[in-house]
Each structure stands twice: as C-alpha cells, then as structure tokens.
What we know:
By secondary structure, the chain is an alpha/beta fold. The chain contains seven helices and six strands; from the N terminus they run βαβααβαβαββαα.
Amino acid sequence: MKTLIVYAHPEPKSLNGALKDLAVTTLEQAGHEVxxxxxxxxxWKAVVDAADYGPAASAPLRVVRDSGRAFDSGDLTPDVRxxxxxxxxxxxxxxQFPLWWYSMPAILKGWVDRVxxxxxxxxxxxxxxxxxxxxxxxxxxxxxxxxxxxTIGGQESHYSARGVNGPIEDLLFPIHHGILYYxxxxxxxxxxxxxxxxxxTANYRDVAKAWEQRxxxxxxxxxxxxxxxxxGDYEIPSLQLKKGLEPAGRAGFGLHVRD
Length: 259
C-alpha cells in the first residue's frame, strides 16, 4: 500500500515525532511504500495569498475561483503541486499532529487551505435536481483512506460523552467529515494518544504497541460509515437529511453517520 504521512509538529523528539518515525518503520517493514511531508522541516507556507496562483490570480483576489483557475492552467506553485501529486499517488493518508485549541496546528490547516484547491478537492461534478456536485463520498480523492493520529494533553475522560471538552468524535468531525470525507476520502476511526504532556516511558511502550497494531490492520479496519450525499439520504438541493432516517434520539453530527 502507498502511504503518505503528513506530519505537523515542530519538535522532532516529541511524541508526535516518535509516532511518525514508528509509522514509517512499521509500514516499510510490512512492505508498504511510504512518503512523508514533514511540514515544519519543509518550512511550509501556511497562508493563502495571490502568490499561490500566479497569473491566474485576480484583483481583487477570489480564492475559490482563482485556485480553480490556477489548478486548471497549471499555475499553482511547485510546493502545492507536489503535495497534490503525493495525494494522487497514495492509497492511505496518515495525519500525525497534536490537538491544539480543539483543532489541528495552523501549519497543517494551511496545508489543507493551499493544497485542497477548487477543481482538485472540491467544485467538481454536476449540479442538477438529482445531484449536488461530487462530494461527501464522491470526488477527486475517492478510493483513498485516511487516519488521524492525534496526541492530546488531557485525559481520555475529558473527551468522553460527558467530558468537559466534548466527545472526541465531535471535535474531530470537522476534519473527518468536512475536510477528508468531503472530497471522497474514506476515514478510519482515529488513533488518539491521551495524556501526552505527562507520558512516561512505560506509558509510551503501551501506546507504541497499540499504534503498531493499528498500522498493521489498516487494510481490515472499517471506515466511519458517513452518509453519502447523492445516494438518497438527503433532500436536494436543500441537503437536509430526509425525515425518518435519523436514529431515535440522535442529533447533531451523529445524524450524518449511518448505523
């Protein structure tokens, strides 16, 4: 399997660095091809601006339209094009990052902002009375799977259904559903390492063993069963879930996951 690891942590000797290195060695020893985008080592430019689109940039800048024009004309910057090539090459994407302020680090969000351009990750497919573009289960990146490996400073109980920080499934939903599933990527359940700031050597051995097991079972792990947009569950064009499809008592993000 061809695997791309997108790694976002400034310290190579961090827990994130150790998990990234362990993923590389484990997957390569299992016969997988692995490429790594180490965003801090690459000095990745995190902000979108007109320079990203060259002659395709308009004045005033219109990021959505101009990113699509630059993609179509081949005017995206070389760093962005290189990451898009990696995404088209791979079959599995592993994102390794710490949860900072309930989200991914800015450098990783900037990777998404710049790499997931119009006509590459969104804005594709027909819009009609029966279909609202190719997204949420369809799209350019269909056929790929993704896994978030996330480190968190707090305890697991803090991120449970009754935890003060909210359920981890809800916190990761914008990434799982809104960034990855939107362009067609199937999303595996996340690998979450809690208590990262107070992790002992003994604790790390347990985490590393569990991480190796997850990596060696990627092929057999079932993805999160998100609903597909154009397969009958949603009204078009309102994109409201059809009445009667919601499980009893379920609301919010959980409506968009099939039983």
